[in-house]
Design a protein that fits this description.
Elements (H helix, E strand, L loop, with lengths): L16 H4 L17 E3 L8 E3 H13 L6 E5 L11 H5 L5 E6 L2 E7 L6 E4 L2 E2 L22 E5 L14 E5 L10 E11 L4 E16 L2 E24 L2 E3 L17 E3 L2 E25 L2 E16 L1 E7 L12 E6 L2 E2 L2 E2 L2 E10 L8 E7 L3 E16 L2 E25 L19 E4 L6 E4 L9 H4 L5 E32 L2 E25 L16 E3 L18 E3 L1 H6 L1 H14 L10 E2 L5 E18 L2 E21 L5 E22 L4 E12 L20 E2 L8 E15 L2 E13 L2 E6 L20 E7 L11 E5 L1 E6 L4 E13 L4 H4 L5 E14 L3 E3 L4 H11 L7 E3 L8 E11 L2 E10 L2 E3 L16 E3 L2 E11 L4 E8 L6 E5 L5 E8 L2 E9 L1
Parallel strand pairs: 6-9, 14-21, 36-42
Antiparallel strand pairs: 1-2, 3-8, 4-5, 6-7, 8-9, 10-11, 10-55, 11-12, 12-15, 12-54, 13-14, 15-16, 15-17, 16-23, 17-22, 18-21, 19-20, 21-25, 22-24, 23-24, 24-27, 25-26, 27-28, 28-31, 28-32, 29-30, 32-33, 33-34, 34-35, 35-37, 37-38, 38-43, 39-42, 40-41, 43-44, 44-47, 45-46, 47-48, 48-51, 49-50, ...
């Protein structure tokens, strides 16, 4: 919930836990409250005690008006009870914050349009499970162990550098704030509507402080255990191949339409299925021998298993029948404008069938993705605070480590349709299956054309004899991230000595961060039917795949009957499954070999970064004005270590060093224009360091023919961000606020992802020999699939390259944030029960400008042909500045709540406008999206909760996420243009009981 305090209208004694546990810095914008508001009055000589929301609002407003910079806060209104179960979804309450989701679970946070933010726990930087910079994943931390979440948008000189949008600090309960024993327990179940399962969520907190002979000591322990099923359906349809007027024919041989159109090139039915199991433990010990000296130790532990049981059902090789299967109906696609060019309109397939009526026929493939993520993280923070007269000092050390392994045994099977014959010598695994598609109404629906004489029956689809093994990826990669930090912070109180300067802060911070990646892997791709063992040779591994794709939106046209290798077995007994597959391969005529995973030295990289930072900051106050001004100086050195694989497999380690220094000025000011009106302004500079995997010098290959190979760029320079902020807050009534803020950011060296693809000839074929003179990079393990003539089937293909560069031009972000919050509690005498209502709302507008780095239709030459035909310009390639990804121009959040008589009800609707992203379904590359990041259409989501206090110690409640089952639509090229992907996330319900004593 969002916290503000009334203007000293109510006092809060220290022994009230609800006040003590919710300490934090207030925000200028309003977030949604979520718990009951109670008033306990004594006689007229005693202070009025307020708990729940009103207490939270009062405390936060008081601290906001004393804050040194612009921050936002969300506090738990009770122990272990933030407004949402997921921390990303908690942050969605904050103005200027939008989130992205995986399988409906909040995982990514954008602050003021940027993914590049810093995540801390109790002020200590965290490390994630991969090679990124954002810190620990929000899905890794149970919100139940967090007391409050603070978002710093305008940093002071003290604030650690490394974020564009803001710094997110997850704060736990402080032991010495307790004057009573803390004991709380929470038990919940989470129901997933798509999986129709109920999983447990348990959390507990225990704390106490004691007065001992030589001071005060306190301890707090919070722990949680949670399981979660996260499902999402993500159908994908590629319509990225041009059928030129006069070349198309129907399946009966009749002439096609008298216009060019986009036919079906690829169909992919993806079911994302992640199963989370998470353990969290947070603990703090504080000892204060006297009021001027304190020692503290904080620890945080996370252990999460994210097991994947996803499936992909593919209609591949569809482009082979495009010229002989004219669609039944078409729709007009208006591509809009890009880079100043009007791309015009073109017809595209809307409904129709794809019949196996040519020699190289469309194939039905069943893939099981079992890549898991097992992450164990530790954080240790220890230090001391000392005060003597006008001098204060803090000495602190911390160490954070994250160890992640990614076991994987993912497989692909081909369906061999017994109703169509194999043709040709040494035929590939493509003997043809008929498909039907219906893209009307904004639904990407497709499946088997059951009316076709070639259609297989359900029994045939589930018969192991009709299954041929096609491909497997097996292995385990590991990432180890370590962050070690030491810091010294000092303050000299100058009040009454220097006029308006109240104090001087200075300090030093040393940080060493490293990431290391290693991979053990093996893979196989079969191109010839003689090499592929039939399912009868490994039938003990086969199980029917999930037939639930219609649950999300009630669709009836989908792939519902298929066989996959048991994902549970592939995860729990990888060695046994691998032995069975190896035996089946050895018994096949081709005797192909899938070896045990071995170390892949080409994938290794280790990057180490060391930073020395110094800061000085003057704090001032005079009349209505207060604030701070300071400088932060950083000196960073980087070593990027990788392996160079030479002739005969000889390994040579290559280290690429880098170094940079920066001076970052920061200024924050506030003016109390009246008792109820506060003006704030700030100026500051920060840097955004590149992700570690963007600096690597190693190369890692995948098996897909369209899977881009990521090439690191160790010469990347950090982004420099200059920010300006101003806000005006009017606290027009107790616990109420109307606030307007503006911000402007100027960024240089913006990181931009670029893709360079190999050329595709008129037959749809790519180069399959090194050194790929027509673009791309040679991937020795890529399945050539349909990108070569049948006689050249095998592995080894030129595939796209993806890399990150610095934009050579400056970019800007400008925005406005507006927030309103009020409740009717002060009108209880007049309106009775209705005084329990309250409203919280915020709106953010932002725009992006500048930049020179572009995306291009040359990422796949098919896009050039399409845009030439639709626009009539014949000006390919077409380019457009990429700009910021995951950046929405408009967003708002509205929460209506009611709290009275022990009841709490809350409904929150969150909406964000369209945004470009690289997050797509089914492994799509920039080439398959016509060269440009896709656009996720505007979307809103409704969450709600209802709870009731049975007694002072027991509360029961239910919460709902995505109550209206809002879907996700993604378009290629521009918003509303070519519908390429859908996301159909889950509706989840949590129900349970809270105990506190």
């Amino acid at each position: 919930m969002r916290l503000f305090t009334m203007n000293n209208a109510v006092s809060k004694p220290r022994h009230r836990l609800s006040a003590l546990l919710l300490a934090g810095t207030a925000a200028t914008m309003a977030c949604a409250p979520a718990m009951a508001q109670q008033e306990n009055s004594a006689d007229a000589n005693e202070p009025i005690l307020v708990t729940g929301i009103r207490s939270s609002l009062q405390n936060a407003l008081e601290e906001k008006r004393e804050a040194a910079s612009l921050v936002e806060i969300i506090q738990a209104e009770d122990i272990g009870k933030l407004p949402d179960q997921n921390l990303a979804e908690v942050l969605e309450n904050v103005p200027g914050v939008q989130i992205t989701r995986d399988a409906g679970i909040g995982t990514g946070v954008q602050i003021r349009g940027s993914n590049d933010n810093r995540t801390e726990i109790n002020g200590v930087g965290t490390v994630g499970s991969g090679s990124g910079r954002g810190g620990i994943g929000f899905e890794d931390v149970n919100a139940a162990v967090i007391a409050s979440v603070e978002v710093t948008k305008a940093p002071t000189a003290k604030t650690t550098e490394g974020s564009v949008g803001g710094t997110i600090n997850l704060r736990t309960i402080r032991p010495l704030d307790l004057n009573e024993t803390l004991l709380a327990f929470r038990a919940q179940g989470e129901y997933s509507e798509l999986s129709r399962s109920v999983q447990p969520r348990l959390s507990a907190s225990l704390g106490k402080s004691w007065n001992v002979g030589d001071g005060e000591i306190g301890i707090v322990l919070s722990g949680s255990y949670a399981k979660q099923d996260a499902l999402s359906f993500r159908p994908r349809v590629d319509r990225d191949t041009l059928t030129v007027q006069g070349t198309g024919r129907t399946s009966t041989g009749a002439a096609g339409p008298a216009f060019s159109y986009l036919g079906i090139q690829f169909l992919n039915q993806e079911l994302e299925n992640f199963k989370y199991e998470t353990y969290n433990l947070a603990g703090s010990l504080e000892y204060a021998p006297n009021p001027n000296l304190k020692f503290y130790v904080d620890g945080f532990y996370n252990d999460q298993t994210r097991r994947q049981e996803s499936t992909r059902i593919q209609a591949s090789g569809v482009s082979n029948v495009q010229l002989t299967n004219v669609p039944d109906t078409f729709e007009t696609i208006n591509f809009g404008s890009l880079g100043g060019n009007n791309l015009g309109s073109i017809q595209a397939a809307l409904t129709g069938t794809l019949q196996p009526n040519v020699a190289n026929r469309p194939v039905l493939r069943f893939s099981s993705d079992v890549g898991a993520r097992l992450t164990e993280s530790h954080l240790l923070r220890f230090g001391t605070e000392w005060e003597s007269g006008r001098f204060k000092a803090r000495i602190e050390g911390s160490r954070t480590q994250s160890d992640t392994s990614n076991p994987d045994l993912s497989t692909t099977l081909n369906f061999v349709n017994p109703n169509t014959a194999l043709t040709g010598s040494n035929p590939p695994n493509e003997n043809g299956t008929p498909f039907r598609y219906d893209l009307t109404g904004g639904a990407l629906a497709f499946g088997i054309d059951t009316s076709s004489p070639f259609a297989p029956t359900v029994a045939q689809l589930l018969d192991p004899a009709n299954i041929a093994f096609d491909a497997a990826t097996v292995g385990n990669s590991g990432t180890k991230n370590i962050d070690t930090t030491g810091r010294l912070d000092f303050t000299l109180d100058l009040e009454d000595l220097t006029g308006f300067i109240t104090s001087f802060d200075w300090g030093y911070r040393y940080n060493k961060t490293s990431t290391e990646f290693n991979e053990f892997s093996s893979n196989i791709n079969l191109s010839l039917m003689r090499d592929a063992p039939r399912g009868t040779a490994f039938s003990q591994l086969l199980v029917p795949g999930p037939s639930i794709f219609g649950r999300a939106d009630g669709r009836e046209l989908f792939f519902g009957d298929f066989l996959i290798i048991n994902p549970k077995l592939a995860y729990s007994d990888q060695a046994g499954v691998l032995d069975t597959i190896q035996a089946a391969l050895a018994a096949a005529p081709g005797a192909r070999v899938l070896s045990d995973p071995t170390y892949n030295p080409a994938s290794f990289f280790k990057i180490t970064e060391q930073t020395h930072a110094f800061y000085g900051q003057l704090n001032f106050e005079s009349g209505i004005f207060s604030g701070n001004a300071g400088l932060r100086y950083i000196d960073t050195s980087i070593d990027s270590l990788g392996n160079n694989i030479g002739a005969g497999g000889a390994i040579t380690q290559v280290n690429t060093p880098g170094k940079y220094q920066m001076l970052l000025p920061r200024l924050n000011m506030a003016a109390d224009l009246s008792d109820d009106l506060v003006l704030r302004a700030s100026f500051g500079q920060d840097i955004n360091r590149p992700n570690f995997n963007d600096l690597k010098t190693s190369v890692r290959f995948g098996t897909g023919p369209n899977t881009a190979v990521v090439i690191g760029n160790p010469n990347l320079a950090p982004e420099k961000v200059t920010s300006y902020d101003a806000s005006l807050s009017w606290y027009f009534a107790p616990a109420s606020v109307l606030s307007v803020g503006v911000f402007h950011k100027r960024r240089t060296n913006l990181f931009v992802t670029q893709e360079f693809a190999p050329a595709v000839d008129v037959n749809g074929y790519k180069d399959f020999t090194a050194p790929c003179e027509d673009g791309g990079i040679f991937n020795p393990i890529a399945d050539r699939n349909v990108f070569v003539a049948p006689a050249n089937a095998g592995t080894g293909l030129c595939v796209p390259i993806t890399t990150t560069i610095n934009d050579s031009a400056a970019t800007t972000q400008t925005g406005i944030e507006v927030a309103f919050q009020a409740d009717l509690s002060s009108f209880e005498d007049k309106i009775g029960f209705a005084s329990g209502f309250g409203l919280s709302a915020n709106y953010t507008y932002q725009k992006f400008g500048g930049g020179e780095a572009t995306n291009t239709s040359a990422a796949d030459s098919r896009a050039n042909a399409i845009f030439n035909a639709s626009s009539g310009l014949n000006a390919a390639p077409y380019t457009a500045v990429q700009g910021l990804l995951d950046f929405s121009k408009n967003a708002y959040n509205v929460t209506l709540f009611y709290e009275k008589y022990g009841f709490t009800a809350r409904a929150r609707y969150t909406w964000r406008s369209s945004f470009r992203t690289l997050d797509t379904a089914g492994g799509a590359s920039l080439g398959s999206t016509l060269g440009f990041p896709v656009v996720t259409a505007a979307r809103g989501q409704l969450n709600g909760s209802l709870s009731y206090e049975i007694s002072d110690n027991i509360n029961i409640g239910i919460e709902g996420v995505n109550l209206t089952k809002s879907k996700i639509s993604q378009y290629c090229v521009n918003d509303g243009a070519l519908l390429c992907f859908q996301g159909l996330p889950d509706r989840r319900l949590q129900f349970g009981v809270n105990f506190k004593f």
